[in-house]
Amino acid sequence: MRQHVNPLSHFFQLEKDLPEIPELFENIDLPIHLDIGCGRGHFLLEMAASNSQWNFLGLEIRESLVVGAEKDRVKLGLNNVSFLFCNANVSLKNWLRNFGKNKVKRVSIQFPDPWFKQRHRKRRVLTPSFLFLLAANLDTGSELFIQSDVQSIMSEMTSLIDLSKYFNSKFPDSKLSTISNPFPILTEREKYVKSKGLMVYRQLYYRNNNDIK
User: Fold this and answer.
1) pTM of the predicted protein model
2) To which H or E segment does residue 160 belong?
3) Domains in the chain, number
């Protein structure tokens, strides 16, 4: 089940002051994996529990899911993962700018809300301006991973990323349906899709050295 909220409503257009890195993680020197649209957080909780060499940060626009994820984090005693309630398209700009390009080393956008109707497409998370924001704040070699069970959504996202010229695909000659998940942990959505025998489309990119213009 996808539980939609309208990211363009007035409430979600209000910028939130996000905590500084020292407030989020015990070891602030570790690289950060930023997961946009983390849902209930199961993916990041498992990733954090199995990999102490990374910090993991989940952003989610549905506040109740963030509250639940934070409760689980505390219960598990994990200090290398945090969850924040915000609209990433609105609140991420100044937060990324505050600590420069050397912290976030990996960004994932997994199974974003598709917003199929033409009039709703402006609500999608990966817009040209948001992609530009990521490119401006990721150092050369940092990774961007996207996946979806909706082929048309993946085609649009990959076209947008390719046109930007700021990211290179790690699998340029592979079909999206044949690329393996680079992570050992699956999201809840991916588990559901696989249980139905449906296809998952993926692509993994790295930030090239093209300057922002």
Assistant:
1) 0.88
2) helix 151-164
3) 1
Q: What range does the domain containing 128 cover?
A: 10-207
Q: What is the pLDDT of residues 59-86, one digit of tens each?
A: 998 888 999 999 999 999 999 999 998 8
Q: Dihedral sign for Cα 68, 71, 77, 83, please.
A: positive
Is 2 among the domain residues? no
pLDDT digits (tens, 9 = 90+) for 29-57: 999 999 999 989 999 999 999 999 999 99
Positions annotated as catalytic residues are 113
For residue 46, CA distances in Å to 42, 75, 152, 169 come to 6, 13, 29, 26
Query: For residue 32, what are the β-bridge partners?
Result: 55, 104
**Is 212 contained in some domain?**
no
Strand ranges (E), the chain:
32-36, 55-60, 81-85, 104-110, 143-148, 167-169, 201-207
CATH number at residue 86: 3.40.50.150
